[in-house]
Amino acid sequence: SDGSIRLHQMTSEYPLMQWNDSTNGQPVIALRWALTRPAVFFVLDASSNIYIWDLLENDLLPVAKQTIPSENVVTMTLLGEPEKTNGLLGIALAKESGQIDIQYVKRKWALP
Question: Where are the domains of the chain?
C-alpha cells in the first residue's frame, strides 16, 4: 500500500532486496514477472503507471515508466510463451470501464 516492493527467497522470511517508495508512494496494484526474461518484472500502481524493472540493467530503479492516459487501469497481466525465443511479450491492461488494452513490450525487455 505504500509503494514498496520486496524480493524474497522462498527459504527466508527476510527480503533479498527491498525498494522503498518505488512508485512515489502510490499503492502497488499488480506485479508480474516477465514470462520470457527472468530478470524483468512489471509493476502497476494506483495512478495507472507501469514501471519496468530489469534487474540485470539496474537493480536500484526501474528502467522505464509508462503512464496509461485517459482512465484508470485496475489490473494487468502478461502474455507470452516462455518456451519460444521470438521476443514477443504483451501486457493486457483491464480498465475501469471494462475495456481491455493489449500492448507489446519492447524486444529488449522480452528477449531471453
Answer: 5-109
